[in-house]
Amino acid sequence: MSNSLQLDAQGRLRHLLSIDGLPRDLLVQILDRAADFSRATAGADKKLPNLRGRTVVNLFFEPSTRTRSTFEVAAKRLSADVINLQVSASSTTKGETLLDTLKTMEAMQADLFVVRHDASGAAHFFAEHAAPGVAILNAGDGRHAHPTQGLLDLYTIRAHQGDPATLSVALVGDVLHSRVARSDIHGLRILGCTDIRVIAPPTLIPAGIEQMGARVFHAMEPGLEGVDVVMLLRLQKERMLGAFLPSAAEFHRDFGLTRARFARLKPDAVVMHPGPINRGVEIAGDLAYGERSLILEQVANGILVRMAVMDLILGSDACALSGVP
Amino acid sequence: MSNSLQLDAQGRLRHLLSIDGLPRDLLVQILDRAADFSRATAGADKKLPNLRGRTVVNLFFEPSTRTRSTFEVAAKRLSADVINLQVSASSTTKGETLLDTLKTMEAMQADLFVVRHDASGAAHFFAEHAAPGVAILNAGDGRHAHPTQGLLDLYTIRAHQGDPATLSVALVGDVLHSRVARSDIHGLRILGCTDIRVIAPPTLIPAGIEQMGARVFHAMEPGLEGVDVVMLLRLQKERMLGAFLPSAAEFHRDFGLTRARFARLKPDAVVMHPGPINRGVEIAGDLAYGERSLILEQVANGILVRMAVMDLILGSDACALSGVP
Amino acid sequence: MSNSLQLDAQGRLRHLLSIDGLPRDLLVQILDRAADFSRATAGADKKLPNLRGRTVVNLFFEPSTRTRSTFEVAAKRLSADVINLQVSASSTTKGETLLDTLKTMEAMQADLFVVRHDASGAAHFFAEHAAPGVAILNAGDGRHAHPTQGLLDLYTIRAHQGDPATLSVALVGDVLHSRVARSDIHGLRILGCTDIRVIAPPTLIPAGIEQMGARVFHAMEPGLEGVDVVMLLRLQKERMLGAFLPSAAEFHRDFGLTRARFARLKPDAVVMHPGPINRGVEIAGDLAYGERSLILEQVANGILVRMAVMDLILGSDACALSGVP
């Protein structure tokens, strides 16, 4: 269902709602375009002309300064005009519905909406109702998906460890509530990864995760054995403790990445985390920015994949990068 | 009084505070310039160089994400730098007065202030005290005026129904509290419209409305008979119910635009509303975005008239559009 | 200690944390560059290409719309992309530490952070941990320093009264809590000023002020005698009254600048204030924007010195202004 919305009749990207079901070629095209942008923005002047005169609207129904910034930086690097809309008080207290907000901003000739909402399916809803030529980019909808986070994880894994089809990847922690985990697993599978592991207590494993292609472990030691990539998931401490977990300390004892557990990984294994990290919970403080950590590089790559997605959807495509000096 | 502030010695636009009293030629010039911008921004690259290097400050003393966005988009399309200032907490708790805020921002060499304030006359006050070369654009001051809303309504009416001098226009609903209604009536009169009707319960009709050139109706059926344009006014439900109106449902029963009442209009009549609409109050939900509704086009035209006003005030005028490819 | 952070091995500006200890030549270079920018932005198009493709992040841990605007305007005039981050709710409630915020934004290839924080030393902390090539500009850290305010005061004094080495300057009011006073005194000393006076009640004079090179007066009349410049300091009424001062009225009676006291100054003396002013407290209302007041010119010059600092840190230096038509 997703793809009839995400792709146009020629199979080109129209909206980005979820990694689930994206064709392999398109996924690779996004990652390759991100790599192009990595080279094109290596100098002091990081401005590219690709989206000049286009309008990108950050339409955030829940606040996330950090995520909003990544899309704002990406769009501005491509010379788009960016309008930030934090919707809550103003519009909704006036009774304007979700759809009225979309239609109103569309009418201002916005080209692309970066949508974040705490309800799963919100981005799909917008994409279903968007006018022709208006694109929706999902920046996180409830527990459902956060596709650019998945893309930046895939980009980072590929850049450091090579072809995902040859790798063992372990996701650790709150898989149940993680839209990042869903996006990562879908993406890894599409790129041919056959050894995807999820490591978590039974209360944090969603039903049906094996059908997505992941093997379940309830302890770190066997799960981490020989993996190339450890993807730690953020623990939403405030909502988890009590209901799903006894305490942050116990979680760290059982599922935190410590130096001892680190030794079980492959020698050149890398550690990833979508951020922001809880030091001493998902990971020991000294490992967070250690030499095998790619956490900050994930942030940098997040700009690149967001530029790539915006450019593929809105850019003049074939000649888009040729205009770069 | 307004015009000695709004126009310079050569009759050119200096501030835009109110439509009331604008010369007909100037009003037509604004609408024509907006039409020029409609053509110039029809392509993917909607960026024009007219206000390059100019600084536009959105100085909002009451929050309005939607209105702020329209001015921000318009200014950015013209290549201006835009600074958004939501003034309340920060400045005023420090005891800085209105005037100090204006003078401070002026000193930063801001060229144009888009001012919104809940007090009638705030924009006039700023214009009276603005330094030479600094322009004030009223984005709504209390119940008084919202001139760019009036201009976009005039633009939309002219584009769809032709010369306002030949038309019958009905404004429906809360005329009493509506700065939009005042701006529309003034503008229609200046353009020669002789059949302006206001339809509302007696509690929502301001004193002296007949002197402004409008005929009063207290029922929809006679008021809508044969009109070319129905302009619905937004009902501020939260402040109205109880004091001025029994209930939203009763308002809809008596003054809502329904399909049955729609039949009384001329066959090619159009429906307008400044937004955001209250579905099922001012208008039946299925009519809001129906084929005769211009509600979203009003939003689009709002960008164009705001560009036109900014360009006429700040642009290099004669040659302003010649720089456009 | 400051300078090992602020300057690189060649003595060029790398971060701006405090005026304290800046070499005289560098201070003069900043003021001269600001004067260059004054000429270069005198026309209608105030946009310069110097920081094109660079990203400036306003990282504000305490709200200050006014100060944020000055940096935003300065960066945009130089064609930088600007990201505004008001950090409080979003990031810190997620437990992200100060350092994680810095590292995350650095990873997005931000070039310069304008940091404001209510803790003294926050900007130093960021500068100590910033990656190579990433600059920190202190926009006020607790009571410690506000170097661009100091620079704009020096620029304004030099532009109007000439070489500070020949002048008498009096700072009046809450010296104890004023980061502006510290920055001004350091800067005036570096430029050779030998007659610096502070005028305040004993409760508002910090220990060790004489060691900084200032003479202390506890009454206006002797302190103002024959000075070229009176720098009024802002009284933070809400935190001061009761604890440090009996009342705002008493402060004005004893330390307010009145017309009678004004007569004691040199005939061509000027009055300055960092703003926003408390009318009738630090200064009589009619003097605030009088002919000898430079208060608004300070705001204008604030843009120029901020452009100068950003350009010296990030610009291509030697050829930076040659690109300006």
SSE layout and pairings?
3 copies of one chain form a homotrimer.
Chain A: H1 2-6, H2 24-40, E1 55-60, H3 65-77, E2 81-86, H4 89-93, H5 98-107, E3 112-117, H6 122-129, E4 135-141, H7 147-161, E5 168-172, H8 179-190, E6 195-199, E7 214-217, H9 220-224, E8 229-232, H10 237-240, H11 248-255, H12 259-262, E9 270-272, H13 285-288, H14 295-314
Parallel strand pairs in A: 1-2, 1-3, 3-4, 5-6, 5-8, 6-7, 8-9
Helix pairs in contact in A: 2-7, 2-14, 3-14, 7-8, 7-14
Task: Give short descriptive properties of this protein.
five-stranded parallel β-sheet, 325 residues, alpha/beta, four-stranded parallel β-sheet, 2 domains, Rossmann fold
CATH architecture grouping of the largest domain in chain A: 3-Layer(aba) Sandwich
Q: Order of SSEs of chain A, N→C? A: HHEHEHHEHEHEHEEHEHHHEHH
Low-confidence stretches of chain A: 89-96, 318-325
Helix and strand composition category of chain A:
alpha/beta
Fourth-tier CATH superfamily name of the largest domain in chain A: Aspartate/ornithine carbamoyltransferase
Assembly context of the chains: homotrimer
Overall pLDDT confidence of chain A: 89
How helical, in percent, are the residues of chain A? 40-55%
Number of strands of chain A: 9
- What strand line-up does the widest sheet of chain A have? 7-6-5-8-9
Count of spatially separate domains of chain A: 2
Describe the structure.
3 copies of one chain form a homotrimer. Chain A is α/β, with parallel strands linked by helices and 325 residues long. Chain A folds into 2 domains: 24-145 and 300-314, 3-Layer(aba) Sandwich (Rossmann fold), CATH 3.40.50; 147-295, Aspartate/ornithine carbamoyltransferase (Rossmann fold), CATH 3.40.50.1370. In chain A, 40% of the residues lie in helices and 14% in strands. Chain A is built from 14 helices and 9 strands. Chain A has helices at 2-6, 24-40, 65-77, 89-93, 98-107, 122-129, 147-161, 179-190, 220-224, 237-240, 248-255, 259-262, 285-288, 295-314; strands spanning 55-60, 81-86, 112-117, 135-141, 168-172, 195-199, 214-217, 229-232, 270-272. In chain A, the strands form 2 sheets. Chain A has a 5-stranded parallel sheet with strand order 7-6-5-8-9. Chain A has a 4-stranded parallel sheet with strand order 2-1-3-4, sandwiched between helices. In chain A, strand 5 (168-172), helix 8 and strand 6 form a beta-alpha-beta unit. In chain A, helix 2 crosses helix 7 (147-161), helix 3 crosses helix 14 and helix 7 crosses helix 14. Chain A is globular. The termini of chain A are far apart. The model of chain A is unreliable at 89-96 and 318-325 (pLDDT under 50). Chains in contact: A-B, A-C, B-C. Chains A and B meet through strand 2, helix 4 and helix 5 of A and helix 3 and helix 14 of B.
